[in-house]
């Protein structure tokens, strides 16, 4: 169980918060997601900022998840993540966009790493939360949402494994994001 460097995590967040524009904020936030996930055996970055053939959809970070070697054997082998460091919770529209990216690529699972979470996350079946629940019901797409407070609470890889596993279970069994 390797430990995370808490000062390094805080540095990623501070630099992302202070970045001069949304693209710079996003790149640093993507770097943070890579730092968190590449500590796991069997997980590596497959590509970054991937555009589809039309140029209409961009994937922030795509991880290869070798399900034989990784602790995330229940997640897709190609794990698509969206990284957003925004002051406000993500809207329903932004969640729909991410789900559309997953759907168009045949993905069943995605990581939405959002500094401020999503709109309605704590209010049950409302706002962006309902968009994620609808994707689960209609398309069997599971979106795991990880926010800043959860990132700051992670001290080692076991914490992140437990966080993702618990969120996956809660989404599937209880239809809740928490």
N-C termini distance: 24 Å
Physical arrangement of strands within the biggest beta sheet: 1-2-3-4-5
Order of helices and strands: HHEEEHEHEHH
Q: What coarse outline follows from CA principal-axis ratios?
A: globular
Number of extended strands? 5
| Number of alpha- plus pi-helical segments | 6
What gyration radius follows from the Cα positions, in whole Å?
A: 15 Å
Strand content: 15-25%
Which structural class fits the helix and strand makeup? Answer: alpha/beta
Mean pLDDT: 92
Largest sheet: 5 strands, mixed
Portion in helices = 40-55%
Which stretches of 5+ consecutive residues score pLDDT under 50? Answer: none
Oligomer: single chain
Q: How would you characterize this protein structure?
A:
The chain is of the alpha/beta class and 178 residues long. Helices cover 44% and strands 20% of the residues. The chain has six helices and five strands, in the order ααβββαβαβαα. The chain has helices spanning 6-18, 22-37, 92-104, 127-139, 148-153, 157-174; strands at residues 43-51, 58-65, 78-84, 109-114, 142-146. Strands 1-2-3-4-5 form a five-stranded mixed sheet. Helix 1 packs antiparallel against helix 2 (22-37) and helix 3 runs parallel beside helix 4 (127-139). The longest helix has 18 residues, at 157-174. The protein is globular.
Quick rundown:
This protein is 44% helix and 20% strand. The chain is of the alpha/beta class and 178 residues long.
Task: List its traits.
178 residues; alpha/beta; five-stranded mixed beta sheet; 6 helices; globular
Produce the secondary structure layout.
Blueprint: H1 6-18, H2 22-37, E1 43-51, E2 58-65, E3 78-84, H3 92-104, E4 109-114, H4 127-139, E5 142-146, H5 148-153, H6 157-174
Parallel strand pairs: 3-4, 4-5
Antiparallel strand pairs: 1-2, 2-3
Helix pairs in contact: 1-2, 3-4
């Amino acid at each position: 169980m390797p430990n995370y460097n808490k000062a390094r995590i805080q540095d990623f967040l501070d630099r992302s918060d202070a970045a001069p524009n949304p693209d710079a904020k996003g790149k640093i936030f993507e770097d943070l997601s890579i730092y968190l996930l590449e500590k796991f055996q069997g997980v590596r970055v497959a590509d970054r900022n991937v555009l589809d053939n039309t140029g209409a959809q961009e994937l922030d970070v795509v991880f290869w998840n070798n399900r034989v070697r990784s602790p995330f054997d229940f997640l897709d082998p190609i794990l698509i993540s969206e990284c957003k460091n925004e002051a406000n919770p993500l809207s329903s529209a932004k969640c729909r966009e991410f789900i559309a990216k997953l759907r168009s690529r045949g993905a069943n699972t995605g990581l939405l790493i959002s500094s401020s979470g999503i709109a309605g996350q704590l209010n049950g079946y409302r706002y962006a939360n309902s968009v994620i629940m609808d994707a689960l019901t209609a398309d069997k797409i599971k979106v795991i949402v990880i926010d800043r407070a959860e990132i700051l609470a992670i001290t080692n890889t076991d914490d992140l494994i437990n966080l993702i596993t618990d969120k996956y279970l809660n989404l599937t069994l209880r239809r809740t994001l928490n």
